[in-house]
Amino acid sequence: MPICRHIESALPRRVMTGFVAMSLALAGAVVSAPKAQAEMLFTAAQNGTEVDFTISGEVNTSILTNINYGSGSSGAVFYGYVLATGGSYPALAYSTPGINISSLFLNTLVFTTSDSDSGGVFGVNANAQDIFLPTGYVSGTTLNSSSIFLGTTLADLGLLNGSSYTYNYGTGLNADSIVFNVGAPVPEPASMALVGAGLFGLVASRRRKV
Q1: Counting runs of H as helices and runs of E as strands, what totals does the chain give?
Q2: What is the per-residue DSSP string for 105-116?
Q3: Measured in whole angstroms, how far is the alpha carbon of residue 67 from the centre of its chain?
């Protein structure tokens, strides 16, 4: 028995229609769920024979403590506790207590700097428990930066492919985050819900054609 006929006999039309509607509603609810006011996404990805660091997003510095030292690092990886991208000097540091990026590292003895950079600096120093941003950065504004490491791999940089880490800070309306992904990012719940809804819609469509 074709699978669509089997589904039709097991699920009456009104049940199947209701099920699809519920799936679409769930997907819409997930997609429209309130997002944090600010989120910074840091990604390290293999691109042929090079590794690209990119950051995109915003940081809510109004709820962070400014440490006020004027030093930063353009694209760099070193010793299992620093990741940086972009090429703007100097930088201002903000305290991020509890930040820990050690799970992103395969080898904590690597020290490497990038071959080229663009955009304002963004970095994290988990040893000093801080992040650094371009001098004059305005809280909540979008920052896009990148760094390129030529002739290397994620493993060469000491990074663990497929790893991720999220640093959450603030509470309530100020519940913000900084997300780090090494390699392919994990699909978000909203994407998974949409995929599920699409599959149910496909089944319903095929059932009507039989």
Answers
A1: 3, 13
A2: BS-TT-EEE-SE
A3: 25
- Whether the CB-CB separation of 91 and 131 falls below 8 Å is answered with no
The size of the chain, in residues, is 210
Which distant-in-sequence residues (6+ apart) come within 8 Å of 78 by Cβ? Answer: 110, 111, 112
- Give tens-digit pLDDT for 161-179: 999 999 999 998 889 999 9
Question: Considering the entire predicted model, what is its pTM?
Answer: 0.71
CA distances from 95 to 79, 98, 147 (A): 20, 9, 24
How much is the pLDDT for 135? 87
Contact call for residues 59 and 131 (beta carbons, < 8 A):
yes
CB contact at 8 A, 183 and 154: yes
CA pseudo-torsion sign 139, 135, 83, 43: positive
Half-sphere exposure of 56 (CA within 13 A, CB side): 4
User: Strand 116-118 to strand 111-113: parallel, antiparallel, or no bridges (unpaired)?
Assistant: unpaired
CA quadruple 7, 8, 13, 19: dihedral, nearest 10: 0
Contact 110, 165 (CB under 8 A): no
Convert the pLDDT of each residue in 35-88 to its tens digit: 446 899 999 999 999 999 999 999 999 999 998 766 667 899 999 999 999 987
